[in-house]
From TrEMBL:
NCBIfam families: ackA. It comes from Candidatus Tidjanibacter faecipullorum. This is Acetate kinase. Mg(2+). Can also accept Mn(2+). It comes from the Bacteria. ATP binds at residues 14, 211-215, 286-288, 334-338. Homodimer. It holds the Pfam family Acetate_kinase. GO terms for cellular component: cytoplasm. It is an enzyme of class 2 (transferase). It is found in: Cytoplasm. Keywords: ATP-binding, Cytoplasm, Kinase, Magnesium, Metal-binding, Nucleotide-binding, Transferase. Signal peptide: none annotated. The keyword Transferase applies.
Length: 404
């Protein structure tokens, strides 16, 4: 079954074409990126697996045009990977927020679309863009079944003690204000893959997954189920991130708002776009820039790294306690996969938990699935490259096959 996976942002579309024979047997045919949608100088970069990469610059006024360009690229006689659009048997979409409507991926129907639209106010930067992909495929190829896969679904297994806030309960009842968590497709994939690599049973193992990138979150996965995660009602909570503050005393925000005469929207913009690593350093949200500045003696860059690394380590310990044990720690995401310093900081001096880190294996390691602990280590640590698109394709395959 040929499946097209779409990850639509506000001005971009990431895509992959995957041939799914079964949930465990698949072949990537092509991937690509549409950029600058609605902005002058649109670009589509198409990368077939066994053919030369192709890049086209053209005006891309909206997502419908962007997806039409994807259709043209994947069926092109020279650089395409399928003969016609009839070869596509399903389209899978990433959707950021499923609220507590969706505990798993779902076949697109009018009712499903209405529920996603109702959640737009919980994810105003993401859900509208995700929906544009669904609308565009409906317009261009109305007969292709579509499936939506939610960043929040994997965390719907959290118990109330993990997701209820200490606010008046009426706000949960009226507005569904609670912890939802994000990066669920990534946490699920790397927990499963990490268990396979470490020789653990995913259905019984206690795993802490660290998805560390410009946006970052940690999850406690106990017996194959998410039981807690660091992001909350929005993706701002938890870890220090590129431009997001992570956990902070709400009283500090009301104090700053009063002193600086800032509105709610201004505070929201600050904690999302001006805080985090960028806010502490005043330099950059890119960890490569921050690490270079720290190496040159910049004290605020060094401080940002200390805060950034420390919070990851703190959550690993907290989730080990919450689960009553630990079998595996997994690192993934742009920083988690490519920053040996982060992994060494988090895993050092953890022998009391049974984790014996191997700094020689870790040194210089980037983007390769690897066990990072010594053979004698009771608790394992691993670097796992995430593949959210494959999770989406697998869920899409299963749903469409069951529909038949």
């Amino acid at each position: 079954m040929i499946i097209l996976v779409l990850n639509c942002g506000s001005s971009s579309i990431k895509y992959q074409v995957i041939d799914m024979v079964s949930p465990r047997e698949n072949t990537l045919l092509a991937k690509g990126l549409v950029e600058r949608i609605g902005i002058e100088g649109g670009i589509i970069t198409h990368k077939p697996v066994d053919k030369p990469r192709k890049e086209i610059t053209t005006d891309i006024p909206n997502h419908t045009k962007g997806i039409d360009l994807i259709f043209q690229a994947i069926t092109d006689p020279e650089s395409g990977v399928i003969k016609s659009l009839d070869d596509i048997k399903a389209v899978g979409h990433r959707v950021a927020h499923g609220g507590d409507f969706f505990a798993e991926s779902a076949l697109v129907t009018d009712e499903v679309i209405a529920k996603i639209e109702a959640l737009v106010e919980l994810a105003p930067l993401h859900n509208p863009a995700n929906l544009k992909g669904v609308y565009a495929v409906r317009e261009l190829c109305p007969n292709i079944p579509q499936v939506v896969c939610f960043d929040t679904s994997f965390h719907q297994s959290m118990p109330p003690r993990s997701y209820i806030y200490g606010l008046p309960y009426k706000y949960y009842e009226k507005y569904r204000v609670r912890r939802y968590g994000f990066h669920g497709t990534s946490h699920k994939f790397v927990a499963q893959r990490g268990c396979e690599l470490a020789g653990l049973d995913f259905n019984t193992a206690k795993v802490v997954t660290c998805h560390i990138g410009n946006g970052a979150s940690i999850a406690a996965v106990d017996g194959g189920r998410s039981v807690d995660t660091s992001m909350g009602f929005t993706p701002v909570d938890g870890l220090l991130m590129g431009t997001r503050c992570g956990e902070v005393d709400p009283g500090a925000l009301t104090y700053i708002a009063e002193k600086e005469h800032m509105s709610g929207n201004e505070i929201w913009g600050m904690i999302n776009k001006q805080a985090g690593v960028l806010g502490i350093t005043g330099l950059s949200s890119d960890m490569r820039d921050v690490e270079s500045a720290a190496a040159e003696g910049n004290e605020r860059a060094r401080l940002a790294l200390d805060v950034y690394y420390y919070r990851v380590k703190k959550y690993v310990g907290a989730y080990a306690a919450a689960m009553g044990g630990l079998d595996l720690v997994v690192f993934t995401g742009g920083v988690g996969e490519n920053d040996p310093s982060l992994r060494e900081y988090v895993c050092s001096n953890m022998e009391f938990l049974g984790l014996e880190f191997d700094p020689q294996i870790n040194a210089g390691l980037r983007g390769k699935d690897t066990i990072l602990t010594k053979p004698s280590s009771r608790v394992k640590a691993a670097l796992i490259t995430t593949n959210e698109e494959l999770v989406i394709a697998t869920d899409t395959f299963n749903i469409v096959e069951n529909r038949k």
